[in-house]
Each structure stands twice: as C-alpha cells, then as structure tokens.
C-alpha cells in the first residue's frame, strides 16, 4: 500500500514538472515571437539634445541650433566654419567676421548692420549677434555668398542645410492612402519607431548601402531607417554650385606656360635699353613694392617707363610686394583686417596707376605663428584683385623645418587661393651654409616640387618653378685644423669668365645634375656648381615633365643670352 502511494506521488510530481516546463516553453515562444518575430511598435522620440532649431547636414544632427526663422534666420558661426567654409575668420579685437570666396570678400561686425562687400558699403537686413557666447550670422547673405540651400520645418523647427554642389537622392513613402510606414532608430524591425511616415511623404535618401534598409530623412528633420521596399525612388535634389566667372589666369594662361623673370630693383632704376634680348619671356616681376610700417603702408619704386617697355615687348607686369623681410613688422602689419586692407587698397591703387597686370607676393622671414595671417591676407587680396582682372601669385620656398622661411607657409591653402605659387627652388645650400654645395641640385628641385604636389594637393599647373640664374663660388680654407666655408653669389657671365681665365674644364656632377669646377686660389679651394645651358635645360625639362605652369628666374641681371635661349624651350 505504501509503495503504491509513493508511486502515485511521484507521478503527480512528474506531471507538475512537465506542466511547468510546458508553460516555460510557451512563455519563451511568446517572448521570442514578440521580441524576435513581431515588429516593435514602441515609439521613441529622437534625441535632438534639447535644441530648439536643430541643424542637420547630410542627414546627421550637427549639434548646433539656428536662431530665428524664415527671413530672420541666423546660423551659428561654428556650424559654418565646420560645414561650409573652415576659412571663415573671426577677429576678437574688433568682433568682426571675414568671409571670402575667389570673387567676393564680406566683412561684418557683431550688432552692426553696416558691412562691406569687396570693401564697398553693404547694408545688412539683420546684424550678426551673440547668444550664449556664440556669434550668429544672417542666413540670407550667407546663402548669396556660398550658394548653399536651407530648408526649415515650421512644425519641428529643424533646419536642413545642403552645401553648393551637393546632391541627394529623393524618394516617397509608398502604400495605400491613409497607410503609414515605420521610420526606425536602427535598421531592424525590432528597433523603436521614431515616427510613422504617411504614404506619399517625401524623404531624402542619405545612405542606401544596406540592400534591405535605407537611411532617410523626412522634411521635418526626422531621420532613421526605412525598409527599402517602403520607399520609391523619386529623382534627386541637387544644389547647383554657385556660378563663378573664370579668373583671368583661367582665361588667359591655361595651357600657356609662364616664362617670368624677377627684376631686382634697388636704388637705381633698371634701364631696359641695356638688356639682352629676352626671347620667350612673357612676364616680368619688378621688386617695386614693400610694406614699410606696422600699419601696412606700402612704399613704391614703380616706374611707368619700365611698364611701358614691358607691355611693348608683349610682357605682363606683375608687381612684387614684399614684407621687407622683417618679422616683427609683419606680425603687426598683418594682425588686423583694417591693416591688411590698408595694404591691399594701396596695392590696387598702384596697380591702377601703373597699369599692372598682376601682383606677386613675397613674404619671407615670418614667424610660424603669423602663417595664418599670411594666408588670410591672400584670401582678402584675391577677390579684390580678381575684380580688377589682376593675376595673384605668391612666392613659396620648398618645404623644410625652417620656422622663418618655410613652416609659416600653408601651401595647401595658398594653392586654393592664389592663381600661381612660385616655388623658389634654390638656396639648397644658402650663403652661410656650413657645407659647400649646389644652389639647386636637380634631385633636390624635383623632390621639392613633388612634395608640394603630393603632400599639399596643389595642382601642377598652378606651380611655377623658380630657377636660379646665379651660383655661388665656395671657398674652403683651413684654419686651425678646421675647414672654414664661405661663399659669394655670382652671375652666369662671371662664372664663364673664371672658367676661361683659369682654363678650367668642367666635369658633370651626376648627383647634382650640373657641371662643376674647382681650383686653388690664395691657398684655398674654390668650388663652383655651374648654372649654364646644361642645368637650365634640365630644369626646363623637369617643369615640362611635371606639367607645371611655367618658370620664374631670379634674377634677370644674373642671366645671359644663352640662359634666355634655353629657358625659351619651355614654350616648345
């Protein structure tokens, strides 16, 4: 009897366990169906970080908020610097904002509707203003300047910004009238819903890499993932690039090599009547202008007769402006918009007065901290000069670790602004070099050009190869058991005279890519890496192989007839 009772009790416990197990299986199945099979119907509002007028770019929340609406819309300066133009300049001392394109220069100040466009008065409808320590700029004038597109949604307050040249595919939500389709936070039916999209709603398709899901944005600003089958393609939205007149460099110099020489002008005016014939030269750049004080005032040595002679020879005249090679003066003169504009206005007046065809900037011996001001000067000069049909170029050194001569130059940015970059590919071994060597060995020149093209993305046709028409006579003298090195710069004719007088026989230096001589004099060794037809022809061929925009020779007075004949081959 006890045995039967025990068996019955065991069977009851086994039945209870099976029922519990069955319930657990059913519950798990329900859970699996609800959470892994059935779509999630939970709605979760998007997180717009508490922004009242959130701004979106490429379907992504930028983290910035606009201010105002419609005709009174203002956009935050940091947003514009990050997504539209990183070169927009803010100057704290004057609370001013400077915006530039190749053809327009806009200057505004906080809380002031008086602005300037290309240094001419412009009355703004809205003044820039400051909110929570952020400067906001009027959207209408920015749309005109940059050509971007704005869409505002009155319901959500969202602002959708597309930059000039940007394109996005469009679509519409398909389905029967009255139906809705889910826009989800993630590419899964189990993700929460951001919003239900009504049939026919327009969307911008920002990402279609997933075959089953599209990342889209409604005109309300809501973003998320929609099933690809729920969206019907509906063309594209394209913001056309702002139409721009081609610069004179693009009109007149495209496919036509520049063959320029710098005319070093000191106290005496050069006399063109004494010049050698200059076959193939089509540009001259006299060193006539220099910034002479901390206010940016310019001194001129310009000569109308010289301009008249050059134009009569079919040459353009690109007047050179230097910073007097004084670092502290440069710091002060480029420190504010007002001072930079003072220099620019004077240069444009000189260009009008002397009928110049261009302006060549030669800023050297500059602190690295002032490099941004050099670039800004060029950004402000370019639209002003282009309005007067002037070519704008700037002289740059090969890349090196020299603070005062190289590191301050942002060659990438300068290449975007200037018509031409003159690469001063010489002084590889400078006057005070502790080691004798070539002024510009061919391999060093080639590397100098390659680095600017490859590292700074400057188009080859914007680069002009600077060529030395001088060389150095190096003297190596033994003093107290050590070799003391000194040098003297001389012209091509001077070297020819030395070779003839001393009956020297040049040998070819393979490493330097040029002829070389050495001789003893006054107990010292004299060494010369020669600039002649051989070295110049190699430089011409190098410029051609890179597809450069031309040549620039320093300086005319160092050259001779054979030099000009050889350099003329750039046109062949």
Automatic annotation (TrEMBL):
Keywords: Glycosidase, Hydrolase, Membrane, Transmembrane, Transmembrane helix. Residues 256-572 form the GH18 domain. The chain crosses the membrane at residues 20-38. SMART domains: Glyco_18. GO terms for biological process: carbohydrate metabolic process. InterPro entries: Chitinase_II/V-like_cat (IPR011583), Chitinase_insertion_sf (IPR029070), Cu_amine_oxidase-like_N (IPR012854), GH (IPR017853), Glyco_hydro18_cat (IPR001223), Glyco_hydro_18_chit_AS (IPR001579), Mao_N_sf (IPR036582). GO terms for molecular function: chitin binding; hydrolase activity, hydrolyzing O-glycosyl compounds. Pfam families: Cu_amine_oxidN1, Glyco_hydro_18. Belongs to the glycosyl hydrolase 18 family. This is Glycosyl hydrolase. It comes from Paenibacillus donghaensis.
């Amino acid at each position: 009897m006890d045995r039967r009772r025990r068996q019955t009790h065991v069977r009851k416990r086994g039945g209870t366990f099976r029922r519990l197990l069955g319930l657990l299986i059913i519950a798990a199945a329900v859970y699996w169906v609800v959470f892994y099979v059935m779509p999630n119907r939970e709605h979760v509002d998007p997180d717009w970080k508490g922004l009242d007028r959130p701004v979106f770019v490429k379907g992504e929340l930028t983290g910035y908020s606009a201010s105002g609406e419609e005709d009174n819309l203002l956009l935050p300066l940091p947003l514009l610097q990050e997504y539209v133009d990183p070169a927009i300049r803010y100057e704290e001392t004057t609370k001013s904002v400077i915006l530039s394109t190749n053809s327009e220069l806009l200057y505004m100040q906080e809380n002031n509707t008086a602005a300037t466009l290309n240094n001419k008065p412009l009355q703004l409808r809205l003044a820039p203003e400051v909110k929570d320590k952020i400067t906001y700029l009027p959207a209408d004038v920015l749309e005109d300047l940059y050509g971007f597109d704005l869409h505002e949604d009155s319901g959500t307050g969202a602002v959708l910004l597309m930059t000039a040249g940007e394109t996005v595919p469009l679509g519409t939500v398909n389905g029967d009238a009255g139906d809705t389709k889910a826009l989800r936070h993630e590419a899964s039916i189990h993700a929460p819903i951001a919003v239900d999209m009504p049939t026919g709603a327009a969307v911008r398709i920002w990402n279609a890499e997933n075959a089953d899901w599209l990342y889209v944005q409604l005109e309300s600003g809501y973003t998320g993932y929609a099933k690809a089958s729920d969206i019907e393609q509906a063309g594209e939205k394209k913001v056309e690039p702002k139409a721009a007149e081609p610069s004179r460099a693009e009109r007149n110099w495209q496919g036509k090599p520049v063959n320029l020489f710098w005319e070093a002008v000191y106290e005496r005016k050069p006399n063109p009547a004494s010049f050698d014939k200059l076959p193939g030269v089509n540009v001259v750049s006299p060193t006539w202008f220099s910034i002479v004080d901390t206010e940016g005032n310019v001194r001129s040595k310009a000569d109308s007769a010289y301009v008249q002679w050059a134009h009569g020879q079919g040459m353009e005249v690109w007047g050179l402006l230097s910073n007097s090679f004084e670092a502290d003066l440069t710091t002060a003169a480029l420190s504010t918009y007002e001072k930079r504009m003072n220099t620019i206005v004077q240069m444009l007046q000189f260009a009008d007065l002397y009928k110049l065809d261009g302006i060549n900037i030669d800023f050297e011996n500059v602190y690295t901290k002032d490099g941004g001001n050099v670039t800004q000067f060029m950004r402000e000069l370019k639209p002003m000069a282009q309005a007067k049909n002037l070519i704008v170029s700037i002289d740059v050194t090969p890349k090196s670790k020299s603070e005062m001569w190289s590191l301050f130059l942002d060659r990438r940015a300068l290449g975007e602004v200037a018509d031409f970059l003159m690469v001063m590919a010489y002084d590889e071994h400078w006057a005070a070099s502790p080691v004798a060597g070539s002024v510009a060995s061919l391999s060093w020149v080639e590397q100098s050009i390659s680095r600017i093209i490859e590292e700074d993305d400057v188009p080859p046709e914007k680069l002009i190869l600077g060529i030395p028409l001088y060389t150095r006579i190096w003297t190596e003298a033994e003093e107290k058991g050590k070799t003391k090195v000194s040098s003297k710069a001389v012209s091509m004719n001077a070297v020819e005279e030395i070779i003839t007088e001393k009956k020297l026989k040049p040998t070819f230096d393979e490493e330097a890519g040029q002829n070389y001589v050495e001789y003893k004099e006054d107990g010292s060794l004299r060494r010369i890496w020669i600039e002649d037809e051989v070295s110049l022809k190699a430089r011409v061929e190098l410029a051609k192989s890179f597809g450069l925009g031309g040549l620039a020779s320093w300086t005319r007075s160092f050259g001779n007839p054979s030099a000009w004949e050889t350099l003329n081959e750039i046109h062949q």
